UniProtKB/TrEMBL annotation:
<dbReference type="InterPro" id="IPR029016">
    <property type="entry name" value="GAF-like_dom_sf"/>
</dbReference>
<dbReference type="Pfam" id="PF01590">
    <property type="entry name" value="GAF"/>
</dbReference>
<dbReference type="InterPro" id="IPR000160">
    <property type="entry name" value="GGDEF_dom"/>
</dbReference>
<dbReference type="InterPro" id="IPR029787">
    <property type="entry name" value="Nucleotide_cyclase"/>
</dbReference>
<dbReference type="InterPro" id="IPR003018">
    <property type="entry name" value="GAF"/>
</dbReference>
<dbReference type="InterPro" id="IPR050469">
    <property type="entry name" value="Diguanylate_Cyclase"/>
</dbReference>
<dbReference type="GO" id="GO:0052621">
    <property type="term" value="F:diguanylate cyclase activity"/>
</dbReference>
<protein>
    <recommendedName>
        <fullName>diguanylate cyclase</fullName>
        <ecNumber>2.7.7.65</ecNumber>
    </recommendedName>
</protein>
<feature type="domain" description="GGDEF">
    <location>
        <begin position="228"/>
        <end position="358"/>
    </location>
</feature>
<dbReference type="Pfam" id="PF00990">
    <property type="entry name" value="GGDEF"/>
</dbReference>
<dbReference type="InterPro" id="IPR043128">
    <property type="entry name" value="Rev_trsase/Diguanyl_cyclase"/>
</dbReference>
Length: 358
């Protein structure tokens, strides 16, 4: 039996160490582990449940289940809710199953040979066991930093089952493999956040210069391929130094943020507005001819002029100068930046609050 366990454990460890796509929902990236466990234990189903809040659990949410179609989320659980993507997943409330929650929270595995009689699972009688046809359960805790994060439930439907120590040890291994996979998912999510931050201007939330360079590289090659025009609008706030000097840097920051929001409302989602630095911004407009870019710039200018910046009781109005150019697809992008910068310089010389097209 010991040999059999080490063989099965080895298989499970190998499977769970394989690289999987963790960008999707829970069922997809836990699927291989629980299906392997189901097969090895010869059990009817395995489900994975996670606490909604690791420190103050109120609910256990069923995030994966071998009953669901091959690692997919059943369609009636799917939600567009970004705040709570698990809103429609099945869940169990602490208040309905206090004994079971306490048992799981203590971190000890539950081998309920007869689930209807075992003291840790008997409160499932009527509500969970019979509707799901479950008669025997082997539940092992998923840990994170030594704290219970959730539980792997191995559930049998064919009557009472005597769980051996070997099977308990194997089920604990399934929980450990899930724990590791969940950690990989967490690291991936952190990496995504860092990537976003690396391309974002911290003050305004707009894209930064690093993103702009990446974006323009891709857009230039796309526009070269399909022969369309890429345009750029550079914007520089007028007499911004006076605002900082008169009201302070904090108010200057508020101005930069409200100005950015105002511009974003005018631009299309496929346009890229980035903060080059200080009070200087650049909008890159894909598939836009110079005339049309000039119209967009004029629309932006008018919107900025009409914008009333609100900060407490303070009401402020600003203007900006605009330089518009067509991006030279055959030249390095720095050339187009120089062109746009030169146009802004001309707008400043022409009295500010105007658009110059070059
Ligand atoms: N509040 C705030 N101010 C900034 C930030 N970055 C740059 N500035 C300020 O922006 C001002 C830019 O001043 P100038 O380059 O003289 O330009 P300006 O006053 O807008 O004058 P013109 O462009 O000629 O109309 C300086 O006072 C900078 O300190 C920032 O992140 N927050």
């Amino acid at each position: 039996m010991q040999n059999r366990l080490s063989e099965l454990t080895q298989r499970l460890r190998r499977i769970s160490s394989e690289e999987v796509d963790v960008s999707g929902e829970y069922p997809s990236f836990l699927s291989d582990i629980i299906h392997e466990g189901q097969l090895s234990l010869g059990i009817d189903r395995i489900s994975v449940w996670l606490f909604d809040d690791i420190n103050h659990p109120v609910k256990l949410i069923n995030v994966a289940n071998t009953d669901w179609p091959a690692g997919q989320v059943p369609s009636h659980f799917q939600t567009e809710d970004e705040e709570d993507p698990l809103a429609f997943y099945p869940s169990l409330k602490y208040t309905d199953f206090p004994i079971y929650f306490s048992a799981i929270s203590s971190g000890v595995s539950i081998a309920a040979n007869d689930a209807e009689q075992d003291e840790s699972t008997l409160e499932f009688n009527g509500i969970y066991l019979q509707p799901n046809g479950i008669t025997t359960m082997l539940d092992t805790v998923i840990f994170k930093n030594g704290i219970p994060l959730g539980v792997v439930c191995c559930e049998g439907r064919g009557g009472v089952r005597e769980w051996s120590e070997t099977e308990v040890a194997y089920a604990e291994m399934i929980a450990d493999c899930c724990s590791r996979r969940l950690l990989v998912k967490e690291l991936w999510q952190l990496q995504q956040k860092l990537r976003l931050l690396a391309f974002q201007d911290a003050l305004t939330g707009l894209k930064n210069r690093r993103y702009l360079m990446d974006f323009t590289r891709r857009e230039i090659s796309r526009h070269l391929r399909n022969g369309s025009t890429l345009s750029a609008v550079m914007v520089d706030l007028d007499h911004f130094k006076r605002i900082n000097d008169k009201y302070g840097h904090d108010v200057g920051d508020v101005v930069l943020r409200q100005f950015s929001e105002c511009c974003l409302q005018i631009l299309r989602t496929e346009d890229c507005l980035c903060r080059l630095g200080g009070e200087e911004f650049l909008a890159v407009l894909p598939a836009t001819k110079l005339d049309d870019a000039a119209t967009v710039a004029e629309r932006l200018r008018a919107a900025v002029e009409a914008l009333v910046i609100k900060h407490g009781a303070l009401r402020l109005q600003i203007t900006a100068s605009f330089g518009v150019c067509e991006v030279e697809l055959q030249q390095p992008f720095s050339q187009s930046l120089k062109l746009a910068d030169n146009a802004v310089y001309q707008a400043k010389r022409a009295g500010r609050n105007c658009v110059v097209v070059v």
